[in-house]
Write a structure and sequence with these properties.
- This protein has 224 residues and is α/β, with parallel strands linked by helices.
- The protein has 2 domains: 106 residues, Rossmann fold (3-Layer(aba) Sandwich), CATH 3.40.50.12500; 104 residues, Rossmann fold.
- It is built from 9 helices and 8 strands.
- The protein has a 4-stranded parallel β-sheet, with helices on both faces. It has a 4-stranded parallel β-sheet with strand order 6-5-7-8, sandwiched between helices.
Length: 224
């Protein structure tokens, strides 16, 4: 069985390992998931300039890789940087964790929210929802308090901050599902899973599921 390839568009090797751990835990038995890390760009993608740079880095990562050796490719940053460009190059399906999380959250017509740490990416995230075709179900974006980099340095603070934002989404936005918006938030997303009365969508596992479905269906989505 060919492996899935998970690409981390930021330069943090530790984040790649964390996301790989989550992806492997959610994959079926015998399904291997391997990872690659961007060689240039930012260690944390927290604004649109870094998102654009990371899109270039994603394409650069695969230039020397035979993508035909994989069942599918996952772009594991919530803005899905480089997704459309990579689809034009790849002989196998390419899935972004943002699109996967959004699609799963909106299943069966559920009203959904996105919770994340990066206010400077709010516009890009909102545009992604529209691009995916689910603006009519979108309850909005909820953000953690404080600078993203500081919040994400402390796992306990990160989890508590995300939990507070989730509580606001449930109590104030009438949301029926919540997407935790970020690849580096994968570990915290898993810990929040059972704490709320609505589904907490973890985008990395959602991307694994969607990537495998696309591989099995022979679906090769292309940029519009």
């Amino acid at each position: 069985m060919r492996p899935l390839l998970l690409i981390n568009p930021n330069t943090s090797e530790s984040t790649t390992l964390e996301m790989l751990s989550v992806a492997r835990a959610s994959a079926p038995p015998l399904q291997e998931v391997v990872g690659l890390t961007a060689a240039h760009g930012a260690a944390l993608i927290d604004d649109e300039a870094k998102l654009e740079t990371s899109a270039e880095a994603v394409v650069d990562v695969v230039r020397s890789v035979d993508l035909a050796g994989y069942r599918g490719v996952i772009v594991s940053a919530f803005g899905d940087p480089g997704l459309e460009a990579l689809r034009l190059l790849s002989p196998v399906p390419v899935t972004g964790i943002a699109e996967a999380g959004i699609i799963e959250a909106a299943r069966d017509g559920r009203r959904f929210s996105i919770v994340t740490t990066t206010p400077k990416l709010a516009s890009a995230i909102n545009k992604k929802v529209i691009q995916c075709g689910f603006g009519h179900l979108y309850a909005g974006l909820r953000l953690t308090e404080g600078p993203a980099e500081e919040v994400m340095k402390d796992p306990d603070l990160l989890e508590a901050s995300l939990a507070r934002a989730c509580e606001d989404a449930v109590s104030q936005d009438a949301t029926e599902a919540i997407v935790i918006g970020g690849g580096p938030l994968a570990v915290s997303a898993a810990s929040l899973r059972w704490r709320f009365p609505v589904p907490i969508i973890e985008p990395v596992p959602a991307a694994v599921r969607l990537a495998l479905t696309r591989a099995d269906d022979g679906d090769l989505p292309r940029a519009s």
